[in-house]
Design brief:
Layout lengths: L2 H10 L3 E3 L6 H5 L12 E4 L3 H14 L3 E4 L15 E4 L6 E4 L4 E5 L4 H8 L4 E2 L10 H6 L7 H4 L6 E7 L5 E5 L4 H7 L8 E8 L1 E2 L3 E10 L3 H12 L6 E9 L14 E9 L3 H13 L5 E2 L2 E4 H4 L12 E9 L4 H11 L8 E7 L2 H4 L13 E10 L5 H18 L15 H23 L20
Parallel strand pairs: 2-4, 3-4
Antiparallel strand pairs: 1-2, 5-6, 6-10, 7-11, 8-9, 8-10, 12-14, 12-15, 12-16, 13-14, 13-18, 17-19, 18-19
The protein binds flavin-adenine dinucleotide.
């Protein structure tokens, strides 16, 4: 790398530029998944859009590939790279709420907790994910699945516009009226098209207090619990979210001590509609099967949104897969119960999420997010601490992935899929027709595939390298 050019970049940025010899480089290059150990040539820690423009122009002049880091939570490690420039937005976490229009402007490096913190001051919320430290950028660009999915759809379904810096350093705003093809592609096509410095979302009146908690059942009753959840979900109100979660119960304050470390199937219940309806809405779930413990109670939305953080502290090793199952029949339930009763580490969880109503009411071609069929989304979240367990844990995930594919629709959820998961499946998610359209957008905004650390869409011209 040209040192003069690097010095000029350092002078041009409000933020800092870190090279391997610099103090702080080793901390800055780390991402959430400790399996990912990459060494970028430099990390540009941007403080605003002008910094992003400068960093991109520098990378292009120096012929460097670019990785874009938002929250750094990609389990596939897409927020970093070996040898290229990381454009790190982790210091661009501003959130501005317009309570009158019920819109929220969020910078590209914000975490979900940053969003909830500001929106909840106004009794508003954006549908996002289930853990507070995930980045809004990566989550939105590939979909965004969380507790409000049944009522308000995916995170990307609530996107109104996005400000993006192209790989030529140009500024564009994508919305229904401006660069509409790009706007379509940004809602499900991932980080393929440019660096999004700010998102504008529609917000909804939710919180600040809601009803939530866990209902725990013995893992050997998993088949009955899943059958109950399936039947209950068919008619449950859209303000109610109930997922099944296979866990070893953590030593958290919402788990009675007698159950710490015990393998369980839990129902993670959240009701975010009017409080006066809440207890009645969750009553059938609480009455089912005499739970081992019932931690449901009123609590702030921001507390609910960080409840699962206990399960996923930073610094662990991760390998994940996911699958959409078109139905939850007896065979699927038996397989899921077998998988959930055989977790390879006490940190591993399997999440079974009904995927329907608002998320599937969106017409299939309205956004680039391709899966709009009523189904069940299975996240297999395998994590462990000791590298000696890596082969065993990855093998377990791959075997589980094969079992799930037998029943699957062929679709995986790209945000919860690890890097070397089958590339054909990644492409199949978009299908040929949608992929061709995405490739045209890619060709328009990134014809030389400078942004390739993502679930990559080749530019239509075929200039992939
Ligand atoms: C603990 C944990 C919990 C999770 N929970 C959920 C959940 O509840 N629901 C859900 O849907 N997903 C969930 N995910 C998956 C999550 O959505 C993805 O990992 C997502 O990629 C994270 O986004 P990020 O910005 O943190 O990632 P990063 O690693 O920073 O980036 C990931 C990808 O997004 C691109 N990108 C990031 N920022 C930008 C930007 N500003 N402009 C353009 N491209 C950008 C990158 O280039 C890269 O391709 C979870 C992941 C983890 C690790």
């Amino acid at each position: 790398m040209n040192n003069d050019a690097l010095d000029r970049l350092r002078g041009a940025l409000l933020g800092e530029v870190l090279r391997p010899a610099d103090a702080g480089y080793d901390t800055a290059r780390r991402v959430y998944n400790a399996m990912i150990d990459k060494r970028p040539a430099a990390i540009a820690r941007c403080l605003g859009t002008a910094d992003v423009v400068q960093a991109i122009r520098f990378a292009r002049e120096e012929g460097l590939l670019i990785a874009v880091r938002g929250g750094g939570h990609s389990v596939a490690g897409h927020g970093t790279c070996d040898g290229g420039l990381v454009i790190d937005l982790s210091r661009m976490r501003g959130v501005h709420v317009d309570p009158v229009r019920r819109t929220v402007r969020v910078q590209g490096g914000a975490l979900l907790a940053d969003v909830d913190r500001e929106t909840q001051l106004h009794g508003l919320a954006i549908p996002t994910g289930q853990m507070s430290e995930t980045g809004i950028a990566g989550l939105t660009l590939n979909g965004g699945v969380g507790m409000m999915l049944h009522k308000y759809g995916l995170t990307c379904d609530n996107l109104l516009s996005a400000d993006m810096v192209t790989v030529d350093g140009e500024l564009v705003t994508a919305s229904a009226d401006s660069h509409p093809e790009l706007f379509w592609a940004l809602r499900g096509g991932g980080g393929n098209f440019g660096v999004v410095t700010s998102f504008e979302f529609r917000a909804h009146p939710v919180g600040p207090t809601m009803l939530a908690g866990f209902l725990a059942h013995p893992v050997d009753q998993a088949e009955e619990v899943l059958a109950f959840l399936r039947d209950f979900s068919a008619t449950s109100p859209a303000h109610l979210s109930a997922d099944a979660l296979f866990i070893h119960a953590p030593a958290a304050d919402f788990v009675p001590e007698a159950f710490h470390g015990v393998p369980l199937i839990t129902l993670f219940v959240r009701y975010f509609g009017p409080m006066e309806e809440a207890w009645e809405a969750v009553r059938p779930l609480r009455e089912y099967g005499g739970p081992l413990y019932d931690s449901i109670g009123p609590m702030p939305l921001v507390a609910v949104q960080s409840m699962l953080d206990t399960f996923t502290p930073a610094g662990n090793l991760h390998y994940w897969t996911s699958e959409f199952l078109p139905r939850m029949g007896t065979e699927e339930i038996a397989v899921l119960a077998a998988i959930g009763s055989d977790l390879p580490s006490s940190l591993t969880t399997v999440n079974i999420h009904p995927f329907d109503t608002a998320a599937t009411d969106v017409p299939p071609d309205a956004t680039a997010f391709a899966h709009r069929e009523d189904s069940w989304l299975i996240h297999v979240i395998c994590q462990w601490k000791d590298e000696a367990d890596s082969d065993r844990c990855r093998t377990w995930v791959k075997n589980v992935g094969t079992m799930l594919k037998t029943f699957g629709s062929g679709n995986t959820y790209l945000n919860t899929t690890s890097e070397d998961d089958d590339t054909d499946r990644v492409r199949a998610f978009w299908n040929d027709h949608r992929l061709a359209r995405l490739s045209e957008v890619k060709a328009q905004y990134d014809p030389h595939n400078v942004l390739r650390f993502n679930h990559n869409i080749p530019p239509a011209s075929g200039e992939a390298s």
